[in-house]
């Protein structure tokens, strides 16, 4: 794994400072700190001038007068710029305003026009002069770090700027509460374990009052108080770590190895505002030497990094490792075996040329969805990039006939003759989708299975209603512990309502959505490298599908589709059985967990508060909340009429020529919320 040179964006809060430790633990170097401060403050007044909190949706500004001290406390150069503009774009998923002369894009979309110099810009764009300033001083910089945990609003904005500047976005805390041990308080406990001291300097929740101000948020007593306070107000995921703006913090100390000094602050009382808000009034501050005798241990050795596999996928991996598929098909019913023991034809067994006729494109409508299948352009010549350009032109014409644009496309399947053309085609494909939620995509190479002269074939699913306004998506471009960042212009998942607009008028907002999933290959999220062993590849890629499904509220898979790459006949049969076994076994395991196995013993007592807000499965944490991840599959959503019906969706295994990044398996599915 190559080391990245990281610009750490800091607000002074616990998460941005703690993220730096994870950058270091993953082998990267932090070359600079970056911060944006509120407007109308002269540079000479930046220190010891607190002023008003501007309540930015994007940036923490309370406590900004302390920021200059981090350069001395951490020994890392700090760069600051002023926040300009305001939150003009309030969409959860961010895309910058573009100029009206956008070439090809103006022919398929009506973009927002970039503001002139006299017009106000979105506050997000304030990051560009800050990062450009740092890059001029540190041209070696290759990445930018953020402390986003659950805020899509913050993450997508930093990703947008980072990608435009050629920087790799890092969000190691992303979805942290959904990772082992699946606890809201685990993050605070992890911070305490390495000695991070972060003080609450603002409260803005009905459950919190001024008595919380200047408490160390990582202290066990404070964590307990936060839980009890949030419990009274039916707190949602992330409340205990302040992800909903319930409170804001200021880190004043941390482990030796990152923190060379600690920060002392004179607190001069509290300022109580409207709506139950309260802010600690900060006075003079300074960086001082750390206490004598403080252990100079290697904090990176004790820093907990979430394990690669969830507990149910660890069980799946162990089960796959125990089964010898050469001699046993344990767990597959006779009906399954009859289907899977049919001989598979690997590409090596097939004739050099398959007699496949050139397919014409096909249109099909089902409810609000339009499917456009098998778009090709062999007449444009043998060069894949020219064929794709022609296909996209055809697609634009077809969409216009329905008064639609590329924003209405929710899913695509890209078939290539050779995966070697993937890198060339990605920018062409990506330029067609400038909106912040590109379609979910499956890409496979089919080799000689494609018709003569066809290098590229494209199929898309289109939402005919709202021209893209009804869809919601998950488009994560940051590296994290959670799931792989996008390696191309696609979303991990895109959801659209199952019903037509006229059918859902007046109904509750929690209507059923179809969730189209991108193909998932076995990339390690932190390194973006492929795992090698096939059973581990199968398990990890399937876990990616599950984690993305849970994040997009999927409750049921309609089926599982596993693409396996070119290999010999025997190995292909074995891989198909591994994939099929994995699909079946994970459903069976989760069915058992859904029935309540693995919880507290009957002889252990828990009071009502414990039952709702703590777990107690004995994994070493004093305060461990129940696994609050949504059930997937959610068997409570089924209405079973036949007693002997087995509630496991079907699984299809398809052998292709090759997969992205030379993966051996790629999983995809269609989910229902």
Automatic annotation (TrEMBL):
EC number from the UniProt entry: 6.3.1.14
GO biological process: protein histidyl modification to diphthamide
Keyword Hydrolase applies: yes
GO molecular function: diphthine-ammonia ligase activity; hydrolase activity
Keyword Hydrolase on entry: yes
UniProt catalytic activity: diphthine-[translation elongation factor 2] + NH4(+) + ATP = diphthamide-[translation elongation factor 2] + AMP + diphosphate + H(+)
Lineage top rank: taxon: Eukaryota
A Pfam family assignment: Diphthami_syn_2
Enzyme's top EC category: ligase
Database matches in InterPro entries: Diphthami_syn_dom, DPH6/MJ0570, Rossmann-like_a/b/a_fold, RutC-like_sf, YjgF/YER057c/UK114
UniProt KW keywords: Hydrolase
Diphthamide synthase domain mapped to chain residues: 5-87, 120-267
PANTHER family attached to this UniProt entry: DIPHTHINE--AMMONIA LIGASE, DOMAIN OF UNKNOWN FUNCTION 71 DUF71 -CONTAINING PROTEIN
Name of the protein in its database record: Diphthine--ammonia ligase
Source species of the chain: Lepidopterella palustris CBS 459.81
